[in-house]
TrEMBL record:
Transmembrane segments annotated in the record for this chain: 65-84
Start and end residues of each AMP-dependent synthetase/ligase domain: 10-355
PANTHER family: ACYL-COA SYNTHETASE (PTHR43201), MEDIUM-CHAIN ACYL-COA LIGASE ACSF2, MITOCHONDRIAL (PTHR43201:SF5)
Keywords: Ligase, Membrane, Transmembrane, Transmembrane helix
UniProt record similarity statement: Belongs to the ATP-dependent AMP-binding enzyme family.
Identification of the protein by name: Long-chain fatty acid--CoA ligase
Start and end residues of each AMP-binding enzyme C-terminal domain: 405-480
Keyword Hydrolase among UniProt keywords: no
Gene Ontology process terms (BP): fatty acid metabolic process
InterPro entries according to UniProt: AMP-bd_C (IPR025110), AMP-bd_C_sf (IPR045851), AMP-binding_CS (IPR020845), AMP-dep_synth/lig_dom (IPR000873), ANL_N_sf (IPR042099)
Amino acid sequence: MYTEQAWIYKRAALSPTKIALIDSGTDEQWSYQMLTEHISKWIHYFQQKNYQKGDRVVVISQNRIELFAIIFACGVTGLLYVPLNFRLSKVELTYILEDCQPVLIIHDEAHQVLCESFIHVERLLVTTKLESASFFYPPETNWSPSDGWIIIYTGGTTGKPKGVELSFDAVNWNAINTITSWGLSDTDCTLNYMPMFHTGGLNALCIPILMCGGTVVVGSRFHAEEALKALNTYKTTLSLFVPTMYQAMLDTTYIKTATFPTVKVFLSGGAPCPHTIYKQFEDKGILFKEGYGLTEAGPNNFFIDPQDARIKRGSVGKCMLFNEVKIVNENGKLCRTNEVGELYILGKHVFTKYWNNEEETNRSFVDGWLKTGDLAKVDEDGYYYIVGRKKEMIISGGENVYPQEVEQCLVLHPNVREAAVIGVTDEKWGECVTAFVSCLAVNDSFEKELLQSCKQVLGSYKVPKKIYILDELPRTDVGKIDKKRLQELAVKI
C-alpha cells in the first residue's frame, strides 16, 4: 500500500524510465525505477537491523546520488535522516552525535578514518553492496504527516549547533509550494553543488524536482568552469548557487563566450547577493534572480519573475501560494510600507522543533508564526527585500545601520571583489561600522577612494569608520562569508 511518505514510489510508477539522478563526476544515471530499487535495498537493510521508528541515521558524505536512496528509505521506514557537515572538527561532530544519538553512521571512503573514531556507533560505507529486496513497494508504517523525516543541524555560528527537525509535512509542502509557485515540471533539470547536509542542497530544488518528475544532476566538489559546462552538457533549466560561486563563475573565461540556451534563470541563495553580480548577468543577457529561505522554513518562501528581478533588483519577490509572511516591528505591530522589521513566516513547511531543545523552540514562535531573525521590508508594489540579520544590525551613535546596505555600496567600487560589514564595540559610538573587503588590486589611494564613494551614497553614520583589506574573506562551509570569524579578526587587528 502506498502512503504519503512514499510518494517517490508513485513518481516511479508514473515515470519509470525517466532519468531521476545523474552523477556529474561519473555520468552514472538512475531512472526513477532504479532509484526505487536502491531505496528498497536500504529499507531491507534497515528492517534486517530492526531499527525502530524515530531512530536516527547519520550520514557523513560528500554529495552523491546514493544519498537520495537513503533519504527516502529513512522516510518510508520512519527513521530520521541526519546529514552532517563533514568539514566540522571531530569535537564538533562528537557534540552532534551525542545530541542525536544515532543507531547508524553511513559514510563515504573519504571520511572513513574520521568515522572509525566513533566506536560506540555502528558504521557502514555508503558504497556497501546491499542485498536486493524481495519487494518493490514500501511497507506499511505507523505514520503521521507531523512525524519527523530529516534533522539538519544549523551551522552554529552563534553558539552550539541546533538540530532542526523537519516533518514529512514540512518537506513535502515546501516541495508542493515550490512546484506550484515556481511552475516546475517534469521537463526541469537542476545541477546541484549545494552541500546535501544543507537545506539548500536538499529542499531548495532537488526534492521538489524529484517530486514533479524532473532530473537532478549531483555535483560533488564545485569547480566554476566545470559547473558552467555541466549546465549545458545536461541541458539544465534552473539551478541554485551561492553568491561566492557566481563570482567564481563570472571570473572564468568560459562564461565570456558561452550561452545557456536551456537555462530559464540562474537562482542565487544562501546569502545576500551583491547587486554587481545582478548587473554582470544582465549585461550578458542572462536571466538572474534571488531567493530567500532558512533551514527552519522551506527553504523556499518567495517567488519573483526573472523579468521583475531586473526592475526590482535585490527583491526576493512575493509570498508563494501555500505560506504566509509578515513583517513585524519591535512593538509587535505590522510594519508600514518600506519600514524595516523582523520577518515572520507561517505554513506547513515550517520546522517542528529543535531536537532536544524545547527552550529554543519556544523562543522561535509567536502564535504559530516563526520568527526568522531576519530583517525585511516590503515596497508599495508588494515586493519583499531582505535587509539583513536582526542580530547583525549595528547601532552606531544611536542610529540603526543595516550591514547589507553598506556592503552593496562597497561592492560598487570597481576594485572591490567582495565586502562584509560588522559592528565592533566602541566606547564613543557604541558600535563602530567596520568593513572587510577583498580587492582586485590595491593602491595607496584605494581606501580613501572607497570612503569617498561611500560618502556619496550613504548617510555619514553608515560610512565605515574602519576598513580592513584581506586577500580573501573567511567563509562558512556552505560558502557564506563568516562574520563570526571577522568579529574575531577585528579584535586581533
